[in-house]
Amino acid sequence: MVLLAVVLFFRLLLPARIIENWYSRRLFVVFREGWDVLLPRLPFPLFYLFWLLVAGWILRWGWQIWRGRRFRESWKAQGRKLINAIALLVSVFLLGWGFNYGRQEVNEVIGFDLYQPSLPELRERVYAEAAELAELRRRITADTTALDASFFPDLESTVRPALETALRQQGYYPAGRPRVRELRPRGLLLHLSTAGVYWPWVGEGNIDAGLHPLQKIPVAAHEMAHAYGFGDEGTCTFWAWMAGQQVKDPAPAYAFKLAYWRRIAGKLRQQEPEAYWEWRAGNLAPGIRNDLQAIYDNAELYQDIAPVIRDATYDAYLKAQGIHEGLLNYGKVVQLVEGYRRR
User: Fold this and answer.
1) Which residue range is the domain that position 302 belongs to?
2) Is 250 helix (H, G, I), strand (E, B) or coil?
3) Domain edge (last residue) among 42, 76, 102
4) pTM of the prediction?
């Protein structure tokens, strides 16, 4: 508990500039590079290992109680030990990665202002990027049937060099060699309304194996951005977009661009639904429409389990980390991308 109190004291009181310069760019780099020497070489996701160890600890605790060893201690003493164990987990989370929630905003470091496009600007962006998407897709194949996994290269070999290049170009150091691995069974995360997760206790990003192939690359880039030391969701999606700007292969470039286009198209659809659907029916390339339908059909295979509880829990978590807008932080990527473009 003493360690947690000290860690929380510094997390809450240190200004963003100090966290950026002394934790995110120094101490975290040491953690990241040291961690990546050995453990990411293991042939399975460390997410499983973490939960195996947690389950083992719980079973051991229960066994000791059942055998009567714990009954010699008061319930107060047992409760204190449980609280200390939780405090240790929280301390490891904060020291090993969680301080990154307090670092400086990327737009401040790079040097641009957030920008919310007006409706005419948004409309123009959606229409123009749809044309660029159509051209990219024609470079992949003339067939308008929905793309499948055979068109896409290995996730990490595509995402890591693109993201590293984007980070270096903007003055960041991509420390270590973090992994992003697929979790099975399919739907393990999707049933919780989650496409991917960065698990800070093992320093590894994960995506759901059930994602459509077109979604895996941008989601993997988002989780790898977390692994490189960025906390808030909008920023990590911004780095995924930045990584997409570095990709020359038309298939992954199309996957990256489609992910962002879906965000801005969704905003346009909310503001003028009738006009959007009319434009979409007459102008969106058939191949893109088929790809979108394949994504929607795939999502239908994994119905949400208790989405209200999940959203409320994660919203509270983000706000506790200083992300005041909570789940709305995911939408910040549009302001970041459009602000960067206006720089």
Assistant:
1) 106-342
2) helix
3) 102
4) 0.92
